[in-house]
Design goal:
single chain; alpha/beta; Rossmann fold; five-stranded parallel sheet; globular
């Protein structure tokens, strides 16, 4: 898969070196066995790398002071996870003390390296000039996205466009530098490193020949929808891209994936139900004692291919204060909302009220990971209002999803873009990473 910047690979490589070197240094005096030493190092490296990946430390994005805490949180979580297999392997208390020391050293090493890395990217690394072929709606959209993300280290120098009407009506602050036949001179004069093709219609042979002849081989060429996905983690929803998505969903590997995913859903839902059984029992008792009403709350949602089903939740609001059309996936609920029973505030904060949806997963009405299901009214309203809205129901709705870990309160249009991005890129390993990120957000109370 092509990458926008190889600096991500550089970052991952040096992170690996730092983690491996510090772990080897910390534990070399603990054991004389090379097998034990390399086992500990491998576990630390594997778990911590995966945690950093799930926390998006290998994405091109804007960093803030909060990321220092997130880095510390990631190292801490990885250390706890690593300690579990070491405990079952019979390691003594000294190993766990060294594991804690190792975590402090790794955090310090990663933090210092990343500070230097970010300084270099911000002040020393040269900006890549970008040329966009097509000054229409798609071209202007991708130009705006690039301009709004300085962390990409890119600058849009201009457009190429053969449509004279577009040139005459041009109102963008970014200039049109010429026609496609001028690509060779424009790329050379502006030191262009990336070309993005943002032409909606099919280009004829003459235009394609001009571009092939004019774009040097060392210049990266991207299709606009693919580049848009890379920098936004959302799907560009248009007639052409949805056509591509259709063919992706009907490939043989998609059928095999569907069967494997269903098996994983069954195993995962049973495991989650067993692990959370004590929490669920406490929740049921607390809800029953709060107002003596029913423990569960059923609401009709839209599932795969638009088929309605009854989604199950623990009831968290007083029985006589919940409207029939209330949707707490879409309607904002304040922390101090009078409708919420006092005991149930903590259930909502940590999404414990959604644990009964494991029953929906076992029934085949939902999946562990997928687009969140919406009410019938919302589905039909958006189906009429938003093009391709029903495409998000090509797969089973999910208990958690890509949109939930990226944005808390999306518009319906943005929700569709995230959901179609998930459908386009879904793979079992990636879905496992989404599930881990969701758990991390829930446990820390950051998932709304």
């Amino acid at each position: 898969m092509p990458v926008i910047s190889r600096s991500i690979y550089v970052l991952a490589f040096f992170d690996t070196l730092i983690i491996a070197f510090i772990t080897l240094f910390t534990f070399c005096s603990f054991t004389n066995s090379l097998t034990q030493l390399f086992l500990i190092t491998f576990l630390v490296l594997l778990v911590l790398t995966f945690v950093l990946y799930t926390k998006k430390f290998y994405d091109i994005r804007k960093y803030s002071l909060k990321d220092i805490y997130y880095l510390f949180e990631g190292v801490s979580v990885a250390t706890v996870i690593t300690a579990l297999p070491l405990y079952f392997l019979g390691f003594n208390i000294v190993a766990f003390i060294l594991l804690a020391v190792n975590a402090v050293l790794i955090f310090t090493g990663l933090f210092l390296f990343r500070a230097v890395f970010q300084f270099f990217n911000s002040y020393c690394k040269s900006v890549k000039n970008v040329l966009i072929v097509g000054a229409g709606q798609d071209g202007k959209l991708i130009a705006e996205e690039i301009q709004s993300r300085p962390e990409l280290g890119m600058k849009v120098v201009g457009f190429l466009d053969d449509n004279m009407n577009t040139i005459e009506d041009e109102d963008s602050t970014i200039p049109i530098l010429g026609l496609t036949c001028d690509s060779e001179a424009v790329i050379k004069d502006n030191n262009v490193k990336i070309v993005i093709v943002a032409v909606k219609s099919r280009m004829d042979a003459e235009i394609l020949t001009d571009l092939v002849k004019g774009i040097p081989l060392e210049v990266k060429v991207w299709r606009m929808p693919k580049f848009y996905e890379k920098i936004t983690s959302k799907y560009l929803v248009s007639k052409m891209t949805v056509n591509w998505l259709f063919y992706d969903c009907t490939k043989k590997k998609a059928i095999l994936y569907a069967h494997l995913k269903r098996l994983c859903d069954i195993i995962s839902s049973i495991f989650i139900m067993l692990v959370t059984l004590p929490i669920s029992i406490i929740a049921m008792i607390g809800i029953k004692l709060s107002d003596l009403g029913p423990v569960f709350y059923f609401q009709t949602r839209i599932g795969k291919y638009g088929k309605p089903f009854k989604m199950i939740k623990f009831r968290t609001m007083y029985q006589d204060k919940v409207e029939d059309n209330f949707d707490d996936d879409l309607n904002e609920v304040q922390v101090d909302d009078k409708r919420i029973m006092p005991f149930c505030r903590i259930l909502r904060k940590f999404h414990i009220d959604e644990l009964p949806q494991m029953i929906n997963v076992l029934r085949g009405e939902m999946s562990i990971v997928g687009p969140r299901p919406v009410r019938e009214e919302v589905y039909y309203e958006n189906k009429e209002r938003i093009p391709f809205w029903e495409c998000r129901n090509w797969v089973r709705p999910g208990w958690c999803g890509w949109q939930q870990i990226n944005v808390c309160d999306p518009t319906a249009e943005d929700r569709l873009k995230y959901d179609l991005y998930y459908i386009r890129h879904r793979k079992l390993l990636w879905e496992f990473a989404i599930l881990v990120q969701y758990f991390a957000k829930v446990i820390t109370g950051r998932c709304k």
